[in-house]
Amino acid sequence: MCRLLGIVASEPTEFGLVLTQAPRCLATLSREHPDGWGIAIHDPEAAASSGSWDLYKGTERAGEDVRFHEIAARSRGHVLVAHIRQKTVGPTLLENTHPFSRDGWVFAHNGTVQATDYLRERSSAGRLAEIAGQTDSELLFAYLLTRLDERGLSRLDGEASRQAATETIAAVTAELREARIGAFNFLLSDGVTCFAHRCGRSLFLLELTPSDPVRERRSVAPGTDVVTKWTPQRHAVFVASEKITDEPWTELPEGTFMRIERLPTPRIVSGTERAA
C-alpha cells in the first residue's frame, strides 16, 4: 500500500500544510509507508524558467527526512501530486519512487497490479524502453501513455484533446477493472488536467470554493488552527487516499474515474462510477 495526494488550485498555493502539518499529513502517514516519497509541483508562472513540473524524490521515510521537510516548507504551485510508498513490487530505490514523470505527465499509483503481463503485452516498445525501475506502477504508467499515444494524445492542447483523453482513459480503466488486473488507484496529470481513479484502495475528495467561510485561518484538527494564506477567490480540489484534515472529505465510490480541470477555475468536469 501507498498514499496519494493531489491538489488542483486556482492560484499559487503553499503545500506545507498537507505535507507536514495536518493531522494525517504525508509526514505522519509515512510511519506506515516508509519506503520513499515524491513531490511533483506544477507552477505555470515559473514554467518558462524551470519547466512545467518540479519533481523531488527521496528513499527515506518522509517524516524523518530533513530534505522532505525542507522541500515541503517551500513548496508552492497550482498543482501538487505527492506520494509516499510502502513497497510491494521492487526494492527501495529512487527509480521506484513515485510520482513518475514522462513527456509533461506525472503519475502516482496506490495498489498492486497482479496482471503485469497483461500490461506489458499491450504497451508499446517505446514506452516499455522508458521504464527505469522495477515497479508494477511504472509499467501501468507506460500502458496508459501507450493508449494515449495511439490516439495522438501524448500532449493535450485544447478542450477537444482533453475530452478525447478523458474518454480514452475512462475506457481503459473500465477495461482494466474488467480484466481484474489488481488494485490501481492513480493520479495522472499534465498540470492542467488531473485524472483520478479508484479501484481496490480508498480515495477521498475535498472541494474548497470561494463560498467557504474560512479564509486566513483554518481548523485542521480540534483546537488546532493554521494560517493558510488563501485569498477569498481561491478554489481548490483535493484528492487523497485518506482524509488529510478534519474537513468534510467525501469518500469516492469504488470504480470512480474523475477528470479535474485547473482552468479557468478548478472544477470537476466529469466523473463516472462503475462497478469494479
UniProtKB/TrEMBL annotation:
GO molecular function, one term: transferase activity
InterPro entries named among the record's database cross-references: EgtC-like, GATase_2_dom, Ntn_hydrolases_N
Entries under PROSITE patterns matching the protein: GATASE_TYPE_2 (PS51278)
Keywords: Glutamine amidotransferase, Transferase
Keyword Transferase: yes
Every Glutamine amidotransferase type-2 domain range: 2-276
SUPFAM superfamilies registered for this protein in UniProt: N-terminal nucleophile aminohydrolases (Ntn hydrolases)
Pfam families (UniProt xref): GATase_4
Keyword tRNA-binding among record annotations: no
PANTHER family named in the record: GLUTAMINE AMIDOTRANSFERASE, GLUTAMINE AMIDOTRANSFERASE YAFJ-RELATED
Descriptive protein name: Glutamine amidotransferase, class-II
The organism's taxonomic lineage, starting at the top: Bacteria, Pseudomonadati, Myxococcota, Polyangia, Polyangiales
